[in-house]
Fold these 2 entries.
Entry 1:
Amino acid sequence: MSTFPSTPEEFYALRDDRTNRCVTSSDYQRIGCAVYLASNQAATADGQTMLLVAANLLSRWCRRVTIALPSTVAHPELGSGDLGRLVLAQMQDADPFGEFQVVDIESAALSDVALCIGGRPPRAASGTTVFISASGWLAGLSYQQPLAMPMSHPANRLGAVAAACLGVGQIFKMALGMHAELGLREGTFDLSRLEWSNELSLGWPTSTDVGKVLMVGAGSVGSAVAYCARVAGLRGSIDILDRDTIKVENFNRSPIFGHTTFGLTKASAVARFLGESKLWATPIEEWWKEFTERKGRLSIDYDVWLPLANEFNVRHAMQQWVPPLMIHASTGVNWGVNHGRHVPGRDDCLVDRFPAEVSADQLACSTAQVSIANVSVDAALPFASVFAGILITADLVRALLPDYPQVPNFALFDWYGPLDVILKSNRQPRPGCVCLDQGQAFHDRFNAATKYRSSFGF
Ligand SMILES: [Zn+2]
């Protein structure tokens, strides 16, 4: 195991490597940000969630962050705990060399850019402020004042996580000096329906028991799923399969990897994080190949698989094992976040979605249009991985609601542009794809008892 970097230069060279693969300028490294939590939001779960997530995301690329709080406020989940101390500890774990401070909102000095949760801060230059707001499934982004949000189910804080992604994503664009036309659009994003709308979003399930989950790959997206699942209060069990260990290069986009988890396996770090959640988490420090060689298919009895490893052959190998419901999301160097869902008998499969792993002669005999997926590479922006995690978590919740699946099986979020258009479609299997041979008889044999069987197309 390598040792932790002892100098800022050494640390940032590793930490920012993956971010630098996505951008053409290093201007983001020099900017100072402030996050303001207005008093009207300070005591709310949505307000505190937005603060915790935004501060976490900022600390993974911004080296100078000031957190401005109205006064010492208690975290509802920590009893008498100090929210400022909690936020600061989380940021210092993500970046031990960062200049992070918590100040009183009245004494906060002017910063280069400001992320505002709730009202306008006492001192903020116009044109440098971004407002975020949240309620239930809804995430708001605006530039002049916070958006008014309808009341929603108090247990649902997923909109708050999405709002933090939107806000920090926009701050990152401003820090890069990107053209205003590429700025994120204002408005209310409904995470339940994956569209810009503040009208009727989906409800919240009476039980958040998602059943038995298999997570394959606990890297940036997998750890973000764990982070969001804990926020959502998901129950059930989750086995976390990954043999890789945590490196500084992972810190830029995972919300839970940091100094204290450096060198641990990703599986054990994610399981440890979930120790404080309502999910029973078990780390499995193996690769997929080792896991399947040790176990027979009939002994792999999970209700839902999360295929989050990005090696192509893993996805292909997983599909060959006749998976039940699968939910995933992936990120790329081009700022895109892809969301995918695969309900057997209804949707396309992993082989359809990631055709790059299929040999050329297999594709040649297909007359269907071959979709070139936004293939995942090992680089992404901080907000992109957490956004991928929230998309997966949202679909796990949707699966507990009536009329699943409520949204198409594919969605593409292009974070490079204003996010005005969210490409959504229902992908179908290619003629001759392996999944078409995995018909009802196969699924009855392997997946008949799984929790989401009733949503299957046969
Ligand atoms: Zn297929």
Entry 2:
Amino acid sequence: MNEIIKVKNVYKSFKGKEILKGLDLSVKEGECICIMGRSGCGKSVLMKIMVGLFKPDFGDVFYRDEQLVFDDFSKLRKYRRRFGMVFQNAALFDYLNVYDNIAFGLKYNYKIDKKEIKKIVFSVLDELQLTDSAYVFPAELSGGMKKRVALARALVLEPEILIYDEPTTGLDAIMVRNIDRLIKETQIKRNTTSIVITHDVNSAYRIADTIAIHSEGVIKELGTMDEIRNSKLKETRLILEGEIDE
Ligand SMILES: Nc1ncnc2c1ncn2[C@@H]1O[C@H](COP(=O)(O)OP(=O)(O)O)[C@@H](O)[C@H]1O
Ligand SMILES: [Mg+2]
């Protein structure tokens, strides 16, 4: 498989506190990679660097072989469009119904007429079994439904790479399985690369092609679940045994 995203020797500090300390990570096209680590270790910061929202203090990000230029805003915008992001809290607009939440990016990023937008939105609503909730407001949705709407909102823009930041946190076990299935189905059906930040070992086991253990500012270990499961590394053991603060 080809490399689609490469993070090379990236450093990032906030107020003198070093969060990423020479981190390397390579993501292969079409895979589902789960990034696991203790809370506060810098997973979301890494994600924001990968999508071009944060500029590293040092080090580089590559899309295929193209180096990301953080100071070239028009290139950066084009780059960011390759990504769809699904955030932990779903981050929906409370004052818009499901349909308008999903259509939002299409209306503002592209010149597409209303009819076409409707077609696209309803086909994704159908795919995610949300058709009946099209005109409902976020306050009336369950946690799992909100996450599906957040995924729908990302999918209508047809991203090449989907990034999920803690997509299952706060959901019950059944919902977690549903979201996991959805992540996997989306990866396979749409042939997207998926990057999933997760605390949940069971989720990672179900969905990951590759697992990356993020600790002390670097990726300490990378491998398949079977490889990671047999790891003797202390950080990896702690994460797999669920002894992480959350
Ligand atoms: N925009 C920011 N300004 C200052 N500090 C930040 C910012 N974003 C993240 N941090 C700090 O970086 C550290 C890692 O955060 P984060 O990547 O969110 O952790 P997590 O692994 O839980 O996702 C935390 O100490 C956090 O306070
Ligand atoms: Mg985070």
